[in-house]
Design goal:
single chain; alpha+beta; D-Maltodextrin-Binding Protein, domain 2; Dipeptide-binding Protein, domain 1; Dipeptide-binding Protein, domain 3; 10-stranded mixed sheet; 4-stranded mixed sheet; 26% helix; globular; disordered N terminus
Length: 696
């Protein structure tokens, strides 16, 4: 969905899809250990059908850790039981096979192996790209990008065929991008293409219609817009593309230079489909007279919901929803042996001939299938990591690819820990909490400096914002809330991304400095008067509650008059309150749509969260010039410099308290070969890069 309407709350440890190998041996017996964390918690409960807030003065928050005391018996040699097939069992199934409507990883697992785009990532590099259906990645240096950064020219790879036998042409590329723009489904990634190519801030292709934007309402669009207006929308879209099938070139002209453009088109919403085949399925035929009939169709109504035809290394054999899908190697794949996308990369026909995905939501069933050897891989929840750990024979570093044997070196699994995610949970503080007509808001108590509340603009004082940044124990949060696998960020941009400055100063846990800043705030009255207000998160998000409990404990240790109460709300109520600007502190998070710093600085400093945190326009203007300058800068080095300056400004003004990226992890059987970690890619989608020990 559109960035300005998107909120991805990051819970506990974000889990990537994981692989496990069955092995012989007894099920490890867990030992349960209890840890008690003291916190004052308020919860919303239903009393006779009415929601009421109930306070538990000193509620014991119990965390249960499982340590496995038994270990598996010695495993057999690390040879795949069937070297032609990789089978794995996952919790969820795909939602759609339409690449221009898919917006979740489970659908991408199929799509990214069957359909291809013009470019993809350079192995583990999320900020560097290699050509796929294009012959080269366009740049200013090679003439593929115009000097003004507006026009991108792609030379389309000749001789490529779709799985049904159709030829790939430059016209297919233009059709594919026109289709995603004109579909403009609000629950897809179309908004990113629309923003970059058309320059429409709403992310909807109907923005320029007098009564637009229609925000995905096809019926209203058709009923209220004249045929002339509809045709004009389509013709405006087509005017941004230029095709020469004879020369094999495709050009796109953007509304403005757009630094993240290559990052955006590396994702499935920009993938290429066959125009003739798609039209034959009853989908849009490319005519400007009919596009409105395919506007915002939804994932289920699209003609391509259950069928797929691409140019990729795998072909869909069959898909039985909620049961299984199977891919088979494309024996006529265009990539020749000895022509890998990167050094030592895969080439030729896919090494693994069959990929079998089975959907089994219940962990117990998945684990039983794993134990019996029925499958060679299984999705393992975070809560069950201790069971998997007992079967790990080696632990590997995703940066160096070096592996270290465990105390049980013959065990069949391999673990890749500490994989940096592309999401983060933070403390969002409102600079001016919204109140009702009477000036009341239950989350800020009395609304005054009387020891029983805070005024709505409590956090508008920079000393308060700095104090809360010093009062947070980041190391404890990583250790207890993120299982020791989090990575601190020194600004809103995540680590290893363009524009992240490792030398940027950041706030460290320091209770003395916290106390000093609070004493400086609000004319020095806080130490004597104190304050009381509520920090809020959604019910069930234990990591978020841990963050609030840490802050609560540290504030109380400085001065018992500094009272932060913890309140949990049902998800819908929490989100509504956060969006309405009612929460003085909210624990929430962001998960990137595409791997570029703009997808972080925009929502944090001038977009989504600034509304929820009630930034003044003047405060946003501190950051806006650099945000807008950086996104249109074509030179990566110059963009990085601008983001460095932006990080300094953010540190100076402290709009929020930035925490740490959760660490991902991955288990795989030791007979699986070819793993690499790219934080921007769907991890279990590039099956072409994998191999199985014992295949030859």
């Amino acid at each position: 969905m559109h960035l300005h309407r998107k909120l991805a709350v990051v819970v506990a440890l974000t889990m990537v899809a994981t692989l496990l190998l069955t092995a012989c041996g007894p099920t490890p017996a867990p030992q349960v250990i209890e840890k008690v964390v003291t916190a004052v918690v308020k919860e919303t409960v239903m009393v006779e059908g009415t929601p009421q807030v109930v306070e538990k003065e000193v509620t014991a928050v119990v965390e249960v850790e499982k340590e496995v005391t038994a270990v598996p018996e010695a495993a057999s040699a690390a040879i795949a039981p069937d070297p032609t097939t990789l089978t794995y069992v996952m919790t969820d199934d795909a939602a759609t096979l339409d690449p221009h409507l898919a917006y979740e990883g489970t659908s991408y697992e199929i799509i990214e192996s069957v359909i291809e785009g013009l470019i993809w990532y350079n192995k583990e590099r999320a900020d560097d790209f290699v050509p796929m259906l294009a012959l080269e990645v366009p740049s200013v240096a090679n003439g593929g990008v115009s000097a003004d950064g507006l026009t991108y020219t792609f030379n389309i790879r000749p001789g490529v065929k779709f799985h049904d036998g159709g030829d790939l042409t430059a016209s297919d590329v233009a059709y594919s991008w026109e289709r995603v723009l004109l579909q403009s489904d609000p629950n897809s990634g179309a908004w990113m293409m629309i923003e970059a190519i058309m320059g429409y801030s709403s992310g909807d292709i109907t923005e320029k219609i007098a009564e637009g934007a229609y925000a995905g309402d096809q019926g209203e669009l058709i009923a209220n817009v004249t045929p002339e207006e509809l045709k004009a929308v389509c013709e405006e879209v087509k005017s941004h593309f230029e095709v020469d099938d004879a020369a094999g070139t495709f050009k796109v002209t953007l509304a403005q230079p757009w630094g993240p453009f290559l990052a955006i088109i590396a994702r499935p919403w920009a993938y290429v489909i066959d125009q003739e085949w798609t039209a034959a399925q009853g989908d849009w035929d490319g005519s400007c007279d009919t596009w409105q009939n395919f506007y915002a169709p939804g994932q289920e109504a699209t003609k391509l919901a259950k069928i797929i035809n691409g140019t990729g290394p795998y072909i869909l054999d069959h898909w039985t929803p909620d049961v299984e899908w199977v891919l088979t190697a494309n024996e006529n794949y265009w990539r020749q042996e000895g022509d890998p996308p990167w050094p030592d990369g895969p080439s030729g026909v896919a090494k693994i001939k069959r990929i079998v995905h089975k959907t089994v939501p219940e962990w117990g069933t998945r684990f039983a299938m794993f134990q019996t050897g029925e499958v060679g891989a299984a999705d393992v929840p975070t809560a069950n990591r201790a069971q998997a750990d007992a079967w790990v024979g080696e632990i590997c570093d995703y940066e160096t690819y070096e592996c270290t044997p465990t105390a049980n070196p013959d065990a069949p699994l391999r673990l890749w820990p500490g994989l940096p995610s592309t999401s983060r949970t933070d403390l969002f503080i409102s600079h001016n909490v919204k109140t009702g007509e009477s000036g009341s808001n239950p989350y800020i108590g009395s609304g005054q400096f009387d020891g029983n509340g805070i005024p709505p603009d409590f956090f508008s004082d920079i000393h308060v914002r700095k104090a809360f940044s010093y009062c947070f124990d980041y190391d404890t949060y990583i250790a207890e809330g993120q299982n020791g696998e989090g990575t601190r960020n020194n600004g809103v941009i995540i680590v290893n991304m363009l524009g992240y400055n490792p030398d940027q100063e950041m706030y460290e846990f320091d209770l003395d400095k916290c106390a000093e800043e609070l004493a400086l705030a609000w004319d020095g009255q806080l130490p004597d008067v104190g304050f009381r207000f509520q920090g809020v998160t959604a019910t069930g998000y234990t990591m978020n509650q841990t963050a609030l409990a840490i802050l609560q404990s540290n504030l109380r240790s400085i001065n018992p008059k500094y009272q932060l109460e913890i309140v949990t709300l049902p998800w819908a109520a929490y989100l509504a309150s956060f969006r309405a600007g009612l929460l003085p502190i909210a624990v929430s998070g962001w998960s990137e749509d595409y791997h570029d710093p703009h997808n972080w600085v925009q929502p944090y400093l001038i977009g989504t969260y600034t509304t929820r945190q009630s930034f003044t326009e003047e405060f946003k203007e501190i950051f806006r010039p650099l945000v807008e300058q950086a996104v249109v800068e074509a030179d990566p080095a110059k963009r990085a410099e601008l983001y460095y300056e932006l990080a300094k400004l953010r540190h100076e003004w402290v709009p929020e308290v930035v925490l740490s990226q959760a660490g991902n992890f991955q288990y795989e059987s030791r007979w699986v070969k070819g793993f690499f970690y790219n934080p921007a890619a769907t991890q279990w989608s590039y099956f072409y890069g994998f191999d199985l020990a014992g295949r030859e």
